[in-house]
Amino acid sequence: MNWYRPVAVPTELADDLVTGWTAQVGGAHRLVPDGCVDVLWIDGGRLVLCGPETSAWSFQFPAGTAAVGVRFQPGRAGSVFGLHTAEIRDRRVELDALLGSRDSRQLAERIDEADGVDAKLAVLGGRVRSWLTRAPSNDPIAAAVAELLRNDPSLPVGALAERIGVGARQLHRRCLAAFGYGPATLRRILRLQRFLRLARQPGAPVSLAGLAVLAGYTDQPHLSHDCRELANASPRELVGRTLRDDIP
């Protein structure tokens, strides 16, 4: 994505944030679910909280539209904003609904006045840091779920509950509150993201079947099914490079 530039977050915030980012948007773009929540500023003074997605979604802006944002780690944004994260699933929410119109307007004005996207991101990042300072700690069950599924994206939900030491119903409730959906959906999304990371690494295998197994899928058809369900695209379309089909 040459219109989008990730910006590393400070080490001390790595447990809370995935990345900052700047963008010069133009035309239509499609985004794939990643389990995260973003807060972003869009040229013209809009401040938006983008909830966790369950399927790919598209957006379009005039050429040269500037945007900056900060991406929260999966499961973190709900505690920061005092939300049950399922309330913002598959939604984009104007930030004044959460901060109040006065605070949201003042923040938007400060970002608007900053010179260049890096300075704008610094203003937004400073406010996010202050939110994190005042926010309660992350739900330890949510943190454990995210860690276990990142390390083993094929882990069954029952085994996940057993390792954490909670019942299946409690696990589901805590995941809804933290991630916006249950552990099975989170697992599918994190597994898809794992596939994308593996496939885009230099020297990655060109075999779809091999990549599928490395990412935690049962086989290549399982990978293709999830790509269609979650991203409305084939594995090749998502990765953007040549991959060998191992199914006759």
UniProtKB/TrEMBL annotation:
SMART domains: HTH_ARAC. This is AraC family transcriptional regulator. The keyword Lyase does not apply. Residues 139-241 form the HTH araC/xylS-type domain. GO terms for molecular function: DNA-binding transcription factor activity; sequence-specific DNA binding. InterPro entries: AraC_XylS_family_regulators, DUF6597, HTH_AraC. PANTHER family: BLL1074 PROTEIN, HTH-TYPE TRANSCRIPTIONAL ACTIVATOR RHAS-RELATED. Keywords: DNA-binding, Transcription, Transcription regulation. It comes from Tamaricihabitans halophyticus. The keyword Oxidoreductase does not apply. It holds the Pfam family HTH_18.
